[in-house]
Amino acid sequence: MLKHALVRTILFSRILLQLGVWIRNFAILLYVTDVTNNDPLFISLISVAEFAPIFLFSIIGGTFADRWPSKRTMIGCDLLSALSMFAVLGGLVYGSWHVLLFATLVSSIMSQFSQPSAMKLFKQHIPADGLQGVMAMFQSTMAVFMVIGPVLGAFIYQQYGIVPSLVLAGICFVGSGLILFGLPRDPASGGRVTQGNFMTELRDGLRYVGRRPALRTLGWTFGLSGLAVGLTQPLMLFLAVENLGQDKSFLQWLLMANGAAMLVGGGVVVTLAKKLPPQLLLAAGLIVSAAGVLGLGWSRSMGLTLSLEALNGFLLPCIHIGINTLILKHTEQAFIGRVGGVLTPLFMGSMVIGMSSAGFLKEFLSLGGVFSVSALLFALGGLTMVPMLREKRAAAAAGGEV
C-alpha cells in the first residue's frame, strides 16, 4: 500500500497531525493541572472540549465533507487547527489559561470535517481489495502514538513548558497541511462546493443508513461495542487496586501492555489483510474480546491480567479495521461522510451511557459483575455479524463478493 502515492501522502500527514495532537493534549492537560491544583472540574472540561464536538459536529462535518472537495477540506482543517494554536498563544500571554479549552475545541471540530474527507479519498482511489490493508496501516499508526504519544507529550511539556509545546503543535499542524498539497487534484465535480440544500442532504444520509441492511447492522454493532467499552473504561483502575492489590500507579503497566499489543495486532492485520474478510475480522475481534473482558473482571493473577489486557489490545485493531473496511465497502462515495457522521455518535453516545452507569453498576453488581455485563455486550456485538457472514458465504458460493 505504501507504493500508492495517495496513501503515503495521507499517512505522513497523519503522522505529523497525531504528533501535534498528542503534544497539544498533554501540554494542555498538564498545564491545567498545574494552574488549577488538580481541580477535577477543569480537568474534566478538557475531555468535554475534546469529545463534545463528536456528538455535535459528526453528522454535520460528514455532510459537509460529502459536499466539499476533499483535498481542500483536509488542508483547510489542518491549517485552521494550526491557526487556533497560535491564536491561543496570544490569549494565553495576555489573558487567561481558559483559552486553552478553545484550542482543543477547534481542533476537535476540524477533525469531524477532515476524517470523512480522508475516507472519501480512500474510497475514490484505493481498489476494494486494498481498503482493509490501508485501514490496518492507519490503525497501526494510531497504535504507535497511543504508546509513545503520552510519553512524548509529557516530556516536551516538562522540559520546555506550555508555550514551546503549543508552538511545536502548531508547526506540526502546518506541516500536515502542507504535505496534503501532494494529494491528487480534486475532480472537476468536486472542485466547488455543492449547492444543494444542506438539511435535505443530511436527511438523505440518515435515510441511506436506514435503507442499507449492512449499515443498520453496523449501527447495532457500534452501539453494543460503545456500551461495552464505556462500562469498563472508568473501572480499569480497580483492576489494579482491588483485584491485584497493587498501587494505582500499576494502571500504567496495564495500559502499556494494551498499547504494545495493539501495535503488534495492527501489524498482523496488515500482513493478513487480503486473506481475512472484514466481517470475520470484526466478529472474531468482538467475541474473543468478550472472553478477555470476562477474564479481566475476575482475574486475581498479575500475569493473567497483563496477558488478557494484551489480548484485548491485540484484538482492538481487528475491531476498528473491520468496521472501517465494512463502512467503506458498503457505502457509496457520495455518502461516506454522512454514514460516518451517523454511526460514530452511536458509538460515542453508547460509551458515555456506559461510563455514566459504570460506578452505579459496580456498587450493585461488583467489579467482576460489571465486566461480565461488558463481555456479554461484546459477544452480542459479535453475533450481529452473523447475517453478514452468511451473506458473505452465500456470495462466495455464487462467485460474487460482499
TrEMBL record:
<feature type="transmembrane region" description="Helical">
    <location>
        <begin position="253"/>
        <end position="273"/>
    </location>
</feature>
<feature type="transmembrane region" description="Helical">
    <location>
        <begin position="43"/>
        <end position="65"/>
    </location>
</feature>
<feature type="transmembrane region" description="Helical">
    <location>
        <begin position="335"/>
        <end position="358"/>
    </location>
</feature>
<keyword id="KW-0812">Transmembrane</keyword>
<feature type="transmembrane region" description="Helical">
    <location>
        <begin position="310"/>
        <end position="328"/>
    </location>
</feature>
<feature type="transmembrane region" description="Helical">
    <location>
        <begin position="134"/>
        <end position="156"/>
    </location>
</feature>
<feature type="transmembrane region" description="Helical">
    <location>
        <begin position="364"/>
        <end position="383"/>
    </location>
</feature>
<keyword id="KW-1133">Transmembrane helix</keyword>
<dbReference type="GO" id="GO:0022857">
    <property type="term" value="F:transmembrane transporter activity"/>
</dbReference>
<dbReference type="Pfam" id="PF07690">
    <property type="entry name" value="MFS_1"/>
</dbReference>
<feature type="transmembrane region" description="Helical">
    <location>
        <begin position="12"/>
        <end position="31"/>
    </location>
</feature>
<protein>
    <submittedName>
        <fullName>Major facilitator superfamily protein</fullName>
    </submittedName>
</protein>
<keyword id="KW-0472">Membrane</keyword>
<dbReference type="InterPro" id="IPR011701">
    <property type="entry name" value="MFS"/>
</dbReference>
<keyword id="KW-1003">Cell membrane</keyword>
<feature type="transmembrane region" description="Helical">
    <location>
        <begin position="217"/>
        <end position="241"/>
    </location>
</feature>
<dbReference type="GO" id="GO:0005886">
    <property type="term" value="C:plasma membrane"/>
</dbReference>
<dbReference type="InterPro" id="IPR036259">
    <property type="entry name" value="MFS_trans_sf"/>
</dbReference>
<feature type="transmembrane region" description="Helical">
    <location>
        <begin position="280"/>
        <end position="298"/>
    </location>
</feature>
<feature type="transmembrane region" description="Helical">
    <location>
        <begin position="162"/>
        <end position="183"/>
    </location>
</feature>
